[in-house]
Design goal:
single chain, alpha+beta, eight-stranded mixed β-sheet, 11 helices
Length: 667
C-alpha cells in the first residue's frame, strides 16, 4: 500500500474537474481475475488525527490477517506498519485517534463454550503511533467471575472536557464468586468508565445498569442518553426498549416519554445522538409508514419537530463528523443514496466535490480534525471502489491519499443502472442491473443476486462480488424484493421469512424479466446469494425448479426451525422466534425440507464459526440434496465467520463459483 500522491489535486473547487480514463482490460486468467476481486479492501478502516496531520488505517495482511498503519503527512508521508493481527478467529475492526500520538483500537473475536455455543467477544486496546506501549483497555476478567465478559467496551466519547488523554468507554460488570471473601463484585450490567488511554487506569463514571445496552454522550463528553433493552429474569430480551435522558443541569435519569413532534403525540421516538448546544436528542420516528428523522428537547418538555421525512423511502442514517460526532445531516436511498446536510458549508462542499470528481461519486466524510478544518473524505461510485482524500477548508485543496481497493484502480467496471420490473401480481419491483462493459444486453449469461437480511436493501455503489461476475461476462440483477427494508412498512410487510412466498416470488420474477427483455439467455440464467440471499437462491428452486439453471448459496439459511432453535442459547431468542414466526410457513419456507423438488445443480459455501447462520444449515442441505440424488457441491471453511473475511478463501470461492457456473451453464 502506497500513498497515491502528495501533490495537491487542485487549488480550488473550480479546478477539480477531471475525466475518467477507461483502461483496456489486460488479458488475464480466471485465477488472476478471482484474485483481484477476492482480496479484501485495501483500506478496512481509516481515521484522522486531531491535528489532521496523521492518518491511521487498517489494511488486510495475508489471508485473514490485518495490519495497522500510520501515515504522517507532515513528515515523509510514508506508510508505517505499527501493529497487526494474525489470529484467524479474530478481526481488528476499528482504530481511532484518542490523542495526537495514541490510538484506541477494537478487536472482535469468536470463541466457543464447552457445549459448542458460539460466543462473540470484543476487546479494546491502545497503542502509540510508533507501535510502542501497547495497553489493554478492557478490564481483565477476574478468576472468580461467574460468567464471561463478552462486551469489551465501546467508545462513548473520544474527547472529554478537562480530561486530556482520557476517553469514555462502556464497561460490562460481571458478578463474582463470593464465598470466603467480602471483596467479590456483586454488580451486574453495563456502565461507563473514564479511562486513561496511556496507563489504562479507570474511574467508574456511570454505575452499571442490568438492562442498559448503550450510552450516548454529547459533544462535551457528558453522558446524556441511556438505552435500556427490557428482559425477563433469565436475561431473555423482549425486543422492547426504553430511553432515559438527563437534562443539561442534572445528573439524574428521567424516562423519555410523553413526546410530541410538531404538536402530535408519538410513541416510537428512537434517539441516537445528542446536541449539547441546542439541548436536543436526534432520533428516528415512523411517519405515515416511513422512518423519518426528528429532534426532541431534553429540557423535560419532550417537545420536538420533524427534521427530514419522505413519502417514498425511509430516512435511515444520521450523518455525523468529527471527534465529537457532530450531527450535520441525514440520508436516505432512492435510486442512489442522497444526503441532506443541515450544515450549509458541508452541503456546498459535498455537492462541489461530487460534481468535480470523476463519475459523480458518493461523497462520505469519514473523519475530521479537532477544529474540523481538515476533512477525511471517501469518494466512490458504482464503477469506482473508492479513494480517500484530505480536504483543507482554508486552502480549498484536495489531496488524494489511499485507494480503497488497490488491485482494482485500473479496472473498467460495469455501470449499475436502476430498473424496475413487474412482479406476477403487477407490483413494480425496484432493482439494479449491471452489465459487462462493451457487451450488448442481448442473450447474456445472467445472475439474479438477491441481497441478505432480509431486513436490508441493495443500493447504488461498488459491490465486489457483482463486479467479479460482470468481469466474467455475466449480467447481474439485484432485486429489492418485498420484505426489503428502506421502502417503508408496507413494502417490508411481514418480513422475508413469514412472507417468503412474496419475497421469493419477486426474486424469481426478476429472472423471468431478464429473459423476457432478451437480456438473459434462458439456458444460462443462474441465481446466487449470501445469507438470506443464499436462502432465496435455494428457495427459488422450491417455487420454480426450472427457472434457474444453477444455484449458488453462501452461508444460507436452509431451515426456519433451525433458525429459531439456533437462537435458544442467546438473549435474543424471543426476538428471533417472533421474527421467524410459527405456522405452515416453517415447513413450506424451508428449502432443506424440499430437496426432492430441486432440478438444478447447487453450490454451497459456509464458515464453521458463523454466528449469523449456523454451519449446520449448509451441512444439512448438502446431505439432503445428496440423499435425493441431486447435484451439489459443498465447501466449508474452518474457523471463519459469516462474512468469510479472508482474501485467500474469497479468491478460492470465486474460482469455485466461476467453474461451477461455467459447467452448469454450458460454458
Amino acid at each position: 500500500m502506497q500513498i497515491l500522491s502528495k501533490a495537491v489535486v487542485a487549488a480550488s473547487l473550480l479546478a477539480l474537474g477531471g475525466t475518467a480514463i477507461a483502461l483496456p482490460a489486460q488479458a488475464e486468467t480466471r485465477e488472476e481475475t478471482a484474485a483481484r476481486y477476492g482480496v479484501r479492501a485495501s483500506v478496512l478502516d481509516i481515521s484522522l488525527s486531531p491535528s489532521g496531520d496523521k492518518i491511521a488505517f487498517i489494511a488486510p495482511g495475508p489471508q485473514h490477517s490485518e495490519v495497522l498503519n500510520v501515515i504522517d503527512l507532515s513528515a515523509d508521508a510514508s506508510v508505517k506498519t505499527i501493529a497487526g493481527n494474525t489470529e484467524i478467529k479474530a478481526d481488528m475492526t476499528q482504530c481511532e485517534w484518542a490523542t495526537e500520538s495514541r490510538l484506541v483500537c477494537k478487536v472482535w473475536l469468536m470463541s466457543q463454550n464447552d457445549t459448542g455455543l458460539l460466543l462473540p467477544f470484543d476487546r479494546l486496546f491502545s497503542v502509540n503511533d510508533d507501535g510502542s506501549d501497547f495497553q489493554i483497555l478492557t478490564e481483565r476478567r477476574s478468576s472468580s467471575a461467574l460468567s464471561y465478559r463478552q462486551n469489551g467496551g465501546d467508545i462513548v466519547a473520544l474527547d472529554v472536557a478537562t480530561e486530556d488523554g482520557h476517553i469514555l468507554m462502556t464497561r460490562e460488570y460481571v458478578k463474582e464468586f463470593s464465598t470466603g471473601t467480602r471483596l467479590a463484585n456483586e454488580k451486574e450490567g453495563l456502565g461507563v468508565d473514564l479511562v486513561d488511554v496511556v496507563t489504562g487506569s479507570r474511574f467508574a463514571l456511570e454505575s452499571p445498569d442490568e438492562e442498559a445496552t448503550r450510552f450516548i454522550a454529547d459533544q462535551t463528553g457528558r453522558v446524556r442518553l441511556k438505552v435500556r433493552s427490557l428482559a425477563d429474569d433469565r436475561g431473555i430480551l423482549s425486543g422492547e426498549r426504553t430511553y432515559m435522558y438527563r437534562t443539561d443541569d442534572s445528573d439524574g435519569w428521567k424516562r423519555l416519554k410523553g413526546i410530541t413532534i410538531d404538536g402530535k403525540t408519538i410513541s416510537d421516538f428512537r434517539p441516537v445522538a445528542v446536541d449539547s448546544t441546542t439541548n436536543v436528542a436526534f432520533g428516528f420516528v415512523t411517519r405515515d409508514g416511513f422512518d423519518a428523522l426528528a429532534e426532541v428537547t431534553l429540557d423535560g418538555s419532550a417537545k420536538g419537530r420533524m427534521l427530514l421525512a419522505r413519502d417514498d423511502v425511509d430516512v435511515d442514517r444520521l450523518i455525523r463528523i468529527g471527534r465529537q460526532r457532530r450531527v450535520v445531516g441525514a440520508s436516505y436511498a432512492t435510486e442512489k443514496r442522497e444526503v441532506e446536510y443541515f450544515d450549509e458549508e458541508l452541503k456546498v462542499l459535498a455537492s462541489g466535490l461530487s460534481q468535480a470528481l470523476p463519475d459523480t461519486p458518493l461523497i462520505n466524510i469519514v473523519g475530521a480534525s479537532a477544529d474540523e478544518n481538515r476533512l477525511l473524505i471517501v469518494a466512490s461510485s458504482d464503477t469506482q471502489p473508492g479513494t480517500s482524500y484530505l480536504f483543507d477548508k482554508k486552502t480549498k485543496s484536495l489531496e488524494p491519499l489511499l485507494a480503497i481497493r488497490d488491485y482494482l484502480v485500473d479496472r473498467t467496471m460495469g455501470a449499475m443502472t436502476s430498473i424496475t420490473y413487474p412482479a406476477s401480481d403487477g407490483t413494480s419491483i425496484p432493482g439494479y442491473l449491471t452489465l459487462p462493459p462493451g457487451k450488448e444486453a442481448v442473450g447474456l449469461p445472467a445472475i439474479v443476486l438477491p441481497h441478505g437480511g432480509p431486513s436490508a436493501r441493495d443500493e447504488w455503489g461498488f459491490d465486489w462480488i457483482v463486479q467479479f461476475f460482470v468481469a466474467r461476462g455475466y449480467a447481474v440483477l439485484q432485486p429489492n424484493y418485498r420484505g426489503s427494508s428502506g421502502y417503508g412498512e408496507a413494502w417490508y410487510g411481514r418480513n422475508g421469512f413469514k412472507a417468503w412466498d412474496v419475497a421469493i416470488g419477486d426474486v424469481n420474477d426478476a429472472g423471468r424479466w431478464l429473459v423476457r427483455q432478451g437480456i438473459a439467455d434462458p439456458e444460462r440464467l443462474a441465481i446466487a446469494g449470501w445469507s438470506y440471499g443464499g436462502y432465496a437462491a435455494l428457495q427459488s428452486q422450491v417455487l420454480d425448479p426450472e427457472l434457474f439453471k444453477a444455484v449458488v448459496a453462501i452461508a444460507p439459511v436452509t431451515d426456519l426451525k433451525y433458525l429459531r432453535e439456533d437462537a435458544r442459547g442467546y438473549t435474543n431468542a424471543r426476538v428471533v422466534s417472533r421474527f421467524v414466526g410459527e405456522g405452515p410457513h416453517i415447513d413450506a419456507g424451508s428449502p432443506l425440507r424440499h430437496a426432492e423438488k430441486f432440478s438444478s445443480p447447487v453450490a454451497l459455501f459456509h464458515g464453521t464459526l458463523d454466528l449469523n447462520v449456523d454451519v449446520r444449515h449448509s451441512r444439512a442441505m448438502a446431505r439432503e440434496l445428496r440423499k435425493a440424488g441431486k447435484q451439489v457441491s459443498y465447501s466449508e471453511y474452518e474457523d471463519l465467520q459469516h462474512n468469510l473475511s479472508d482474501s485467500k478463501v474469497r479468491t478460492e470461492m470465486l474460482l469455485e463459483i466461476d467453474a461451477f457456473l461455467t459447467k452448469a451453464l454450458g460454458g
